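Methods: example folding runs. The two proteins below were folded one after another, and each record is reproduced exactly as written to the output file, sequence line first and structure-token line second.
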Amino acid sequence: MDELATLFMNIISLVGLKMDEVAALNYFIAEQTIKAEHNAKFLKERLGLDVTELEVDGVLQVQRALVSTYISKETEKVGG
């Protein structure tokens, strides 16, 4: 994950994206991932969450929950 993040940062720097452009790109990636058919189905079946009609705030809330879950799992791995 760290290598991928570094690659993205290198591309962002190379292209010269501004903070708002990076934020928009991050949102686009999150929205496309959350609303992908297999992920939307998973979220609907497991959490009862219909993500197909989410607007910006809804997508960001789902992303926030996913990031929190990821951080918790990674912290447990290193014994935190």
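Second run, written to the same file directly after the first:
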Amino acid sequence: MRKPRWAYVLMLLVGVGLGVAIAGVPSTAKDPPLRVQTETEPTTIAPAPTTTTTTTPPPPPTTARTTSTTRRR
């Protein structure tokens, strides 16, 4: 079944109305033009600060109690 053409026009107008209500009317008078800078400025890389860390050896292992396991039959 074909829908009438007015239904498509109505949906288009509702979409435009919602877009204007959410985002507002676009204007280019307020925004400055976008300028893309293609030249790069030389940068200096500072060396990273040196840090020293000390580690202590782990404590000796403790002896655990030995337990026997039992089987269920």
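Comment on the second run: The first helix runs from residue 5 to 23.
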